[in-house]
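hiii so my PI (J.) wants the whole complex modelled not just the main chain, which honestly fair. so below is everything: two entries, each one labled with what it is. i double checked the lines twice but i was tired so who knows lol
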Amino acid sequence: MSHPHSSYQFRHVLGGKTFGFVDLADLMAKATPARSGDRLAGVAAESAEERAIAQMTLADVPLSLFLQQALVPYEDDEITRLILDDHDKIAFAEISHLTVGGFRDWLLSDLATSDKLTSIRQGVTPEMAAAVSKIMRNQDLILIAKKCHVKSAFRNTLGLPGHLSTRLQPNHPTDDLTGIAASMLDGLLYANGDAVIGINPATDNVQQATRLIKMMDEVIQHYEIPTQSCVLTHVTNTIECIDQGAPVDLVFQSIGGTQATNDSFGFNLANLAEAQAAALSLNRGTVGNNVMYFETGQGSALSANAHHGLDQQTCEARAYAVARKFNPLLVNTVVGFIGPEYLYDGKEITRAGLEDHFCGKLLGLPMGCDVCYTNHAQADQNDMDNLLTLLGVAGCTFVMGIPGSDDIMLNYQTTSFHDALYARRVLGLKPAPEFDLWLDKMQIVQNSDQFTLNARLPDAFYHSLNRLTGGHS
Amino acid sequence: MSTPDSTLKKTPTENTEPVTENAWSKLTAFTDARVGLGRSGISVPTKHLLAFQLAHAQAIDAVHAQLNIDELAQTLSQQAWAPAGKPLLLHSLAVDRATYLQRPDYGRRLNNKSAQQLDAHRAKNTQAYDLAIVVVDGLSSLAIEQNTLPFLRELFHQLDNKKNDWTVAPICLVEQGRVAIGDDVCERLNAQCVLVLIGERPGLSSPDSLGLYLTWGGKVGLTDAYRNCISNIRPAGMSYPDAARKAVYLLNEARTLKLSGVKLKDRTDDNAIDTLSDNRNFLVE
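here's the output for the full assembly
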């Protein structure tokens, strides 16, 4: 509860009480469903009542106000400049008369068809998406995200309705190639890896990245796998790898929603543009040219002390403006990785995962989610099962796939190869079509309509395994 | 010429049993990853499900175990290679583990008593320090208890070997700390750079992983872009000699360039130890 004050931009009178919010950022933060990171930042609503009032007040804010009042100053922040300079007024025309509350109704309505949602995309700013998500229930986030169709392509086609892809994540604590190959084989034989085969290197330098990029490229070529590889190293490292002739498919970078966050990550928009141009120059995609892979996550701006007093979900949505600029193949919100100081428990992780997926899809991103938790968070496998199922229903583009949910390099738990098959079977979802054909050709699946795996070891892999485990004479 | 591995042929050709074993389950000899678990339909078989639940329970317990800081200080002070001066015992602003988990800002700053202790040390000692070594419990006191001594022994051996002439401040031990608390220590000791040893967050297979963070000119407020990291130092991960070699390389480079972080690339000619000696792997041979 706050007292009436002349410095409040927004007021709401309820009975004898007047609630005030100093500016749009304050209103957005206080309207945000409760989470530990906003409490840590000191921007959260002070009571459940204040939060509900903030949501009612936010619902009356015209969408056009977000074009007039930047939440981070235009002069100070290249992401604000990106958001406002790239805003498409023609695409916005259809929704320009709406308030935040009216936008929710419109998005849920039958007026907002998949085609219509595509046509307004470039007129929606991250702040508008964040604002409307704050007054939505989880089912709204799911229903509207499912209507947003976002396709991307490199060596296969991702994001088609009725499909769920996986990043095969064969991380190893010493980047041992045999260990990595073992996890790759496991994943491929569990029908995973169509979004990307992506390694977080334990040793983060140009030479190691090049070695891992070459290794994955050899495997992809040898088995003619319609997928792409990525080493998740710093963008400046990947540029060096390309300069040195490494077979780079995708450029990776962790991104945040303020310039100061990205400064803390050691890059700017010009670096991303340079990297994208370098990757495109290799011309390695066969069915598409989306060459960027971005990761995000609520709390990164605050953890770099670069949040400008914004709530963490609004900062997260602003990161999607960065992603959108570079036509990514994949955007991954690593929702439970950052820890309990930002998302305290399974309930907060679930909510954040659905928000991020919704905002990303509404803005036109090929949004996936690392459904995950750390051992110092109040969460477990049951929370992951719930969020995976909800995201599968919402049409999530991809999730992670890792042996037995256990990342032995990054020390956290994410979804397993088995989990992806569960989601595909229970929700009737298919892998990317090119990859699906490959699974059939390689005899990895027995019946792709019923998601049944072949019990027999496929011939192509028998020979590889026998080389490793067979006798020598 | 290789001979057939008969166990590969014993695998079922039909999904006839409740649990289908994987022909590649013996790959567990080459990695700690949970590969080749087999499947009940498409789900994780019961025995592996329950093994996972036990590992998760142990990891949760590891987060909450307390570092025996007095014992570590005593052991360190008995080592011939240790820098001059008794280890300094410090504490962050986070009073307990529950606060620590929810307030990372508290974990990055020393409490008043510790700050005063360092300021007093600085006032009494006029010599300039090239390097401050800060040992922090982080999210795994087990990692600190298990790896600190053997890693530091190797580090000092290599620093000494190369006649690098580093003047090292007394080792600082910090409870309830995060990486950036090294900046606070570095600034108060007026050291040129700081090397933080910290317990990384426990994984299911690795409750004991040590991380290293090097920061040139550590001072309060620096972001991670100014740091270089070496991760996963433990008996089953990166070896102590390898980690020390990388650390010494980065320390010398940082001193030459007078910086650390994104602009300091780790170019140690250091392919990780492979099961196969070259860059081949069994999938493409």
